[in-house]
Amino acid sequence: KQWYQRRVAITAGDIINTLSSHSARQTYAMKHFLIGLLLVGVAYSQCNVHYDVKIITHTSKWAESNGVFTMSAIGTNGREEVLGQLDNRDKAVAASGGTDHYHFENAPSVGQIECIRIKTDKSEDLWLINYLIIDSSMSKPVKIVNIDRTAVSVDAKEGTKSLRMCGKIYSEGKTFTYNLQLRTLPDGMKSHPGTKNQVSINIIGEKDSATGFMGLANNASNFVNKKNGGHLDFFDLESTHMVARINCIELEISGDDMLCLSDVLVAGPKSKVRFYNTDLKCMSTDPKEGGKRLRLCKAGESTYEVKTTTSTAKYSGSNFPYLSLEIKGDKGVAKVPFLDNYGVNDYEPGATDTFTLRDLPAVGSIKCIKIRYTSEDFLKMTMVSVRHVNAVKPVVFKPTGGIPALSKDPKEGKTLIELCR
Predict the structure, then answer these.
(1) At 43, which helix (H) or strand (E)?
(2) For the CA atoms of 393, 398, 404, 408, what is the dihedral angle to 10 degrees?
(3) Cβ contacts of 133 within 8 Å, gap of 6 or more
(4) What is the arrangement of strands in the sheet containing 395-397, beginning at the earlier edge strand?
(5) Which residue did the predictor score with more confidence, 7 or 254?
(6) CB-based contacts of 319: which residues, under 8 Å, 6+ apart?
(7) Do β-strands 282-283 and 70-75 pair in parallel, antiparallel, or remain unpaired?
(8) Using an 8 Å Cβ cutoff, are 111 and 76 in contact?
(9) Range with lowest mean pLDDT among 86-100, 317-331, 367-381
(10) 317: which of 1, 27, 133, 349 fits an S-S bond (Cβ 3.0–4.6 Å)?
């Protein structure tokens, strides 16, 4: 195509240079010949476009497929053209977590690519794409993320027969780092909250910006079961997508070995957010244990400082303080699923512990607190205070009769108490 376009340019230049030396009739004929030649060149370039597609399949075991699928490209002008069948000879269309490359020759141009469509009329074997990159000889590369996690299948219970996805121009080579901290609930708030399964995360921002699902390397040291304080895992992930203002995350598990998280901290290029699993929802492909996906969104912009003082009496402290907190105000409620400083022996007899709670909703004027306790290890506190970071003084909860003792054993204490001003 490039050779042909160069020859058109050279021929046109030669004709223009010789127009002045010919008669009017010859000049007229040459002009029309030149116009026809240029039209042929334009038509040739519009119908002889090649496309390159790289598709990354999701890591779930059931994401792979050997079905029959076709692909169309859609331009910014709305024009849609069928490229052909996604076929890599005798191999499966895509293996879980795998990368497949496809090349289409002599296809019509849609101009600058904006969207794609993947269709199937035959395959009941679903295909779940994580993301893809597509470019052509007439378009800049575009990265398209399957944000909604929609599979392609003729079975309406599993997916859709026609999946349309759109994306943005992709700048190859530029990556962004996301630092993650995922905290597993302690074994005691949930039985066996850790998992051996593969876990993936999608970081979601404003205007549907997203990183796409990224796998979190799971080995013997990650997502393990621990009683005291749960378990904290650290991950550094690279993505070609930059999410400026992080709003939500979506987690997905690949198997039926349940995972229960307390909270997740995500630090991106321009924002840092802590997400709280306030409903203590677990993830599993077994519906009896939880959903295979968990979506958590930012609760708010407020920061609170909570202080607790443990009684000095013997056996008042707790080694397994499974304690959750609600802060109630005249404008709302803020919930924290697990009140604990990781790696610190909180709730020791006579000790005052401080907890800084970020990214919570503004509750207005603080009125009450509610404490839930799910441990059989007795805990006796004498004071709890709560302060919004912008407030001068904290709200102190120190009832005259004392704070009731906490224990899952009804002979020792209560599992739920509410303290008000």
Answers:
(1) helix 24-47
(2) 20
(3) 53, 54, 141, 142, 143, 144, 170
(4) 352-360, 302-310, 381-388, 395-397
(5) 254
(6) 228, 377
(7) unpaired
(8) yes
(9) 86-100
(10) 349
Please give the structure tokens belonging to residue 369. Answer: 């607190």
Residue 358 host element (H or E)? strand 352-360
Signed CA dihedral, 234, 238, 241, 242: sign only:
positive
**DSSP codes, 213-242:** -EEE---TTSS---SSS-EEEEEEEEESS-
Closest residue by Cα to residue 116 from 95, 131, 96: 131
For tokens 């909860």, the residue is 397
Predicted local confidence at residue 253, as pLDDT: 94
Residue whose pair of structure tokens reads 């030669």 in the numeric block: 14
Please say whether the beta carbons of 197 and 172 come within 8 A: no
For strands 168-169 and 139-145, give the pairing.
antiparallel
Tokens 């075991």, residue located:
61
Query: Closest Cα partner for 394 from 371, 421, 358?
Result: 421
